[in-house]
Design goal:
The protein is of the alpha+beta class. It has a single domain (about 5-180), classed as BirA Bifunctional Protein, domain 2. It has 5 helices and 7 strands, in the order βαββαββββααα. It has a 7-stranded mixed sheet, with helices on both faces. Helix 2 (about 75-85) packs across helix 5. The longest helix has 22 residues, at about 160-180.
Length: about 190
């Protein structure tokens, strides 16, 4: 099972773009933007984005599973995958219910999974993922909650394409098991 990355320089929101184009998109198409002009999280909260210093992760993953038994756990599943990858950068992630990944109490990632139905027909799920890779101290001041980035935690720039590749490989490697069995490990929330 492979994924296809659709790169867009500037977009209002990768999730909005994916929703508008859902009929022509395939399972595991990943919409990746350098910059989102109207990125949002839960309750339409604004997600600050910047493409400076090597960029950050602003993606939406299109999923069209046959089994939808565990879709209510998809946000937690995605959070666990983000956490796995962050650990490879010597970070210790925590979780804030329902959809934030934190480092030392500061937000580094947000996930938003949205199911799409037309009437009662299930069309797919769009999983929006934002991860602060290279935001610096000035960028962080634009975020209205305590936030951080891999750069601020390690003082090292992170290659966006390398991180995305690690994330998608981990996501896909566990995905079938997740669809069949749900999320087996409980996440500990702070």
């Amino acid at each position: 099972m492979r994924y296809n990355i659709i790169k867009i320089e500037n977009v209002d929101s990768t999730s909005v773009w994916a929703r508008k184009n859902l009929d022509t998109l395939n399972d595991f198409d990943v919409i990746s933007a350098d910059n989102q002009l109207s990125g949002h999280g839960q309750f339409e909260r604004k997600w600050y984005s910047s493409d400076k210093n090597g960029g950050n992760i602003y993606i939406s993953i299109v999923l069209k599973p046959d089994k939808i038994n565990y879709l209510n756990e998809l946000t937690r599943y995605t959070s666990s995958i983000v956490s796995e990858v962050l650990k490879t950068y010597s970070l210790k992630p925590d979780f804030k219910f329902p959809n934030d990944v934190l480092i030392s109490g500061k937000k580094i990632s947000g996930i938003l999974a949205e199911s799409v139905f037309v009437g009662s027909e299930f069309k797919g799920v769009i999983v929006g993922v934002g991860i602060n890779l290279n935001l610096d101290g000035l960028d962080i001041k634009n975020i209205d909650i305590p936030a951080t980035s891999i750069f601020l935690e390690t003082n090292k720039r992170t290659d966006k394409d390398e991180f995305l590749s690690k994330f998608m490989e981990s996501f896909i490697n566990s995905y079938d098991n997740f669809l069949n069995n749900g999320l087996k490990s409980e996440l500990t929330y702070v």
